[in-house]
Amino acid sequence: MSEQQQFTSSEFGSLRKASQKMFRAITSHLGVNTAYVTHKGQTAMTVLSSFNEKEEIVEEGLSVEYSDTFCRLIINNKDSALNAINLQKDEFAKELEATAELEVKGFLGVSLLDSKGEVFGTLCALDKEEKEFSDEDVDFLKSMSEVLSYLIELDQTHYHMGFLNVPIIPITKGVSVLPLQGVIDDTRSGIIMETVLNHGAKHQMSYFIIDLSGLVILDNHFPTVLKQLVQSLQLMGIETMVTGMTPEIAKLEVASEAFHNINVRTVVDLESALERIGFDLTMN
Q1: Pick from 226, 224, 267, 216: nearest CA to 244
Q2: Contacts of 40 by beta carbon, 8 Å cutoff, 6+ apart
Q3: Torsion sign (Cα): 198, 202, 203, 204
Q4: How far apart are CA 30 and CA 125, in angstroms?
Q5: C-alpha span between 108 and 73 (Å, rounded)
Q6: Element (H or E) spanning 278, and its range?
Q7: What value does the CA radius of gyration of the chain take, rounded to a whole number of Å?
Q8: Virtual CA dihedral for 50, 52, 56, 57, nearest 10 degrees?
Q9: Given phi > 0 = left and psi -120 to 50 = alpha, else beta, which region is 6?
Q10: According to the 3-state scheme, what is the secondary structure of 238-255?
């Protein structure tokens, strides 16, 4: 059903810190043992932060396949909430392996959204005893979720800020590397375009090698700025090569079309790119 995994959640530091302080209020107000926050990944839900007052039921770092979680029932619910007096008797929840494994009965969970209204995960409270949650209890947990959604935005902003710089690495005269990392949004696209073109003109570049191995693709959206960047460099007489094409990027049809239309050369890695332009890497 599930597995304990090493989960790095440093980019959600504000969320984790605030949720820990809120969990005591939630468990006290609702009269339950456990409160926790999950994050929805591609295939699984992972517990980012949890609090167990007496008995440890849900551990931080616990990862459960999405199809086998209570969270799926919450997110799929038209009201974005799951309110169950006894999960063992709930029509849908009783079929989940997690219900039997955790031996929980009373459960209340609501969706946790980011600033764009997209599902980030869930905020849940549960107990091994039957619990009847009122409409006021549901509203209370939803209000807690709304507070946490602001912290998600804060953490995501801090995360993206770390990638706002454009780390151009000079290799030799006329040759530089641009390693792209993280998410490229509209703001960062403008910074990349301006910085790279200014660098190319100022240093009279002959070659630019763009490495995509650290690029993060969200919602299958390939950054259109890369096509524009390559075309602009070509107009300036600067030859461009692309390295670090990951399987995830290669599978994107829009990425394939973008690189095909601009006839850019792609190579496996930086060493191969340097060899293509006649630059030898020697070990001293």
Answers
A1: 267
A2: 66, 71, 75, 119, 120, 121, 122
A3: positive
A4: 8
A5: 11
A6: none
A7: 24
A8: -70
A9: beta
A10: CEEEEECCCHHHHCCHHH
Residues 35, 48: Cα–Cα separation, whole Å: 11
Q: Is the pLDDT of residue 281 over 60?
A: no
Which two three-digit tokens encode residue 55? 């008995």
Tokens read off for 64: 């459960």
* pLDDT score recorded for residue 57: 93
**CB-based contact 234:198 (threshold 8 Å):** no
Q: Residue 69: which of 32, 100, 89, 99 has the closest Cα?
A: 99
> What SS3 class is residue 110?
strand
Name all domains of the chain by residue range, CATH numbers in brackets.
Answer: 2-161 (3.30.450.40), 169-276 (3.30.750.24)
What pairs with residue 158 in β-bridges? none
Burial of 274 (0-12, 13-18, 19+ CB in 10 A): buried
**pLDDT for residue 283 is more than 50:** no
| Residue 160 scores a pLDDT above 70 | no
Kindly tell me the burial class for residue 70, based on how many C-beta atoms sit within 10 Å of its own C-beta (0-12, 13-18, 19 or more). Answer: buried
| Two structure tokens written together for 164 | 């706002």
